[in-house]
Specification:
Layout: E1 3-7, H1 12-23, E2 27-32, H2 35-44, E3 50-53, H3 59-73, E4 78-81, H4 96-122, E5 128-132, H5 145-164, E6 171-177, E7 179-180, H6 196-202, E8 207-208, H7 210-222, E9 227-230, H8 232-243, H9 245-259
Parallel strand pairs: 1-2, 1-4, 2-3, 4-5, 5-6, 6-9, 7-8
Pfam families: adh_short
Protein name: SDR family oxidoreductase
InterPro entries: KR_dom, NAD(P)-bd_dom_sf, SDR_fam
Length: about 260
């Protein structure tokens, strides 16, 4: 039985990926700091899941969880580096602790996952590291500067490891979804009365479903594309960033103007 380990598995994209792969008969391991959410995700899966309450910022927690999961599953076919947190609002007003937390969870932890996960993935022929980036990794998103910077980092990590790990027989793939309609977007933007959802929609960007990202994850793991783009917003931003950069600049400026 093939096996997938998913961080951020208590909700949103992580939960949807767990459900998608479980339907295909895979053994699923899910990790998150939210123990209640982990139990809720496991209850949705036909055969349940191995659950790990862990903080992705702690290297020892990564090692302990992957040691346990691979001992039970006997292999690791996919490591879904998915955990992430939102952060919105003007960067000039952003609390330093929130900046540090966002960078640590969204980027540093993804690097930890790759660094530690490599040894486990290398044992399974044709394994895959699947990183979750964002449409914010296509063009820097005003009002989401720190978040966008971390997701650009995840995109760069994916590109770098695609080459670095080729000789090890490990595929590296990246998901670039549009902004996903989950409860996380209800978080308020710093320095604004708007939620992150309102900041995103004010910039003219559409929201996508977590289930669509899960389907894309399945295609990404089994396909050859380095990045899989999900949703109309991601497709439009990808096209505009390449062919109409001036329009993208105006779109981001319009988003900031509507926040104030």
């Amino acid at each position: 039985m093939q096996a997938i380990f998913i961080t951020g598995g208590a909700s949103g994209i992580g939960r949807a990926i767990a459900e998608r792969f479980a339907r295909e008969g895979w053994r699923v391991g899910i990790a998150d700091v939210n123990a209640t959410g982990l139990a809720e995700t496991a209850a949705l899966l036909p055969s349940g899941a191995d659950t790990y309450r862990m903080d992705v910022r702690e290297p020892d927690a990564w090692t302990a969880a992957l040691d346990d999961f691979t001992a039970k599953a006997g292999r690791l076919d996919v490591l879904a580096n998915n955990a992430g947190v939102p952060m919105g609002g003007p960067i000039a007003e952003a609390p330093f602790d929130e900046i540090e937390r966002t960078v640590a969870i969204n980027l540093t932890a993804a690097i930890y996952g790759a660094r530690i996960g490599h040894a486990y993935l290398k044992r399974t022929q044709g394994s895959c590291l699947l990183n979750t980036a964002s449409a914010s990794a296509i063009y820097g998103s005003s009002g989401l500067a720190t978040y966008s910077a971390t997701k650009f980092g995840v995109r760069a990590l994916t590109e770098a490891l695609d080459g670095e790990w080729y000789g090890d027989g490990i595929k590296v793939r990246g998901l670039i979804p549009a902004f996903i309609d989950t409860p996380l977007l209800q978080h308020p933007s710093h320095g604004s009365n708007q939620s992150i959802r309102e900041t995103v929609t004010a910039a003219g960007l559409e929201l996508s479903r977590a289930e669509d990202v899960a389907d894309a994850a399945w295609r990404a793991v089994h396909g050859d594309a380095l990045f899989t783009y999900v949703g109309k917003t991601a497709d439009r931003m990808r096209f505009a960033a390449r062919w109409m950069p001036g329009r993208m600049r105006k779109m981001m400026r319009r988003g900031v103007a509507s926040e104030k």
